[in-house]
Each structure stands twice: as structure tokens, then as C-alpha cells.
Design brief:
With about 110 residues, the chain is α/β, with parallel strands linked by helices. The chain is built from three helices and four strands; from the N terminus they run E-E-H-E-H-E-H.
């Protein structure tokens, strides 16, 4: 997708993305991370789940990977205007919210 095609990055292994907006669905954090690194400017918002299946890193891990990438390399990634958490896991949701705050702090430096 080109720069002019803004869309939602949807990270979830089970729930289908909403059909009311252009979206790219990722079922694991590695493919979502790769997309953010290569095509981050395409995504105006992210919607993230915490639990992504057995033996798969979580949505929290995805956020930590991004934070570590920025903190350790100084990478200038395109973060979206809006990051939402649609996880039903209350502990995972809290951890992800803290990770979003950390990510935004590192990105602003």
C-alpha cells in the first residue's frame, strides 16, 4: 500500500478486524513489527490484543520490542496518531498501557 493509503494495524490472532475502515491484520508480533519498521507511515492507528496464542509473544511484547528498538538504535519509526488496546485480559491491558506510555516517551526524545 502506498503512502496515501492510511489504515489500521490490527494485531490479534482470533478476532477479525472491523470492516468499516481499511485495515491490515497481523496475527503475530513479528509480522506487525516488520510492517511498522518498513511501512509505519501507512498506519494511522493500531488496535492491539494482548494474548496472541500459545508460545507466541504477546501484544505487550510487540510494544516492548518497538520501545527497545527506538531506545537502543535511535530508530525513527512512524508511530500512529492513535493506539488502542482491545484485549480482554485486564493485567495484559494494564501492562500494555504502561508500555504505550514508555514507547511514546522514547519516541519524543
Amino acid at each position: 500500500m502506498g503512502v496515501g493509503n492510511k489504515m489500521l494495524l490490527w494485531l490479534d490472532d482470533i478476532r477479525t478486524p472491523p470492516s468499516n475502515e481499511p485495515c491490515e491484520w497481523f496475527k503475530d508480533p513479528w509480522s506487525a513489527l516488520r510492517a511498522v519498521i518498513v511501512r509505519g507511515h501507512d498506519f494511522t492507528s493500531w488496535s492491539l490484543d494482548h494474548d496472541l496464542g500459545e508460545n507466541v509473544p504477546t501484544g505487550y511484547d510487540f510494544l516492548c520490542m518497538l520501545t527497545n528498538l527506538i531506545a537502543c538504535t535511535g530508530a525513527k519509526l512512524c508511530l500512529p496518531v492513535e493506539i488502542n488496546i482491545h484485549s480482554a485480559n485486564p493485567v495484559g491491558r494494564r501492562n500494555m498501557q504502561r508500555a504505550i506510555t514508555d514507547l511514546e516517551l522514547y519516541y519524543e526524545r
